[in-house]
Amino acid sequence: MQEEIRRACEVLQKGGVILYPTDTIWGIGCDATNEDAVRRVYEIKRRNDSKSMLVLLDNPVKLQNYVAEVPEIAWDLIELADKPLTIIYDGARNLAPNLIAPDGSVGIRITTELFSAALCKAFRKPVVSTSANLSGEVAPSNFGEIPEEIRGAVDYIVEYRQNETGKGEPSGIIKLSNDGTISIIRK
Description:
The protein is an alpha/beta fold. It has 6 helices and 9 strands, in the order H-E-E-H-E-H-H-E-E-H-E-H-E-E-E. It has one domain (2-186): DHBP synthase. It has a 9-stranded mixed sheet, sandwiched between helices.
């Protein structure tokens, strides 16, 4: 696994795009601070860049680097979540501009899954994580379901966990607004 993390980090540092396992489903990823890399992910997915993508971090402490003000409730939600949870925060910062939604928000998930957490820790920056499918199509629930078109468009495919046949599921999504509003987007 360490060699896979080293190779993936090398590609990410050069502005490349990877296909990798996460705590939910397989994701297309890149350096979340690199505008050109983020643009490539939108192109690969054939997705309008007004549809935001989320980023992964390995440690909640790092949130403060990418969100102007982390609502107090976020810390409890992260700690108490019993399945992967993406939280949409207002006041995104220090990320590629084309990754931030028009309202200034960004979705961030703290991953504890072995590979994606180690990747984020080794890379030392947030990593984009978006489902490995073309926009509008069903998200693949394991590596074997990823379309060849996606596989052929990325710069590196992580070998770790490719043989798993289980059904991964997308994360829950909650939007926390600075005015105290909590909205459940996806359970």
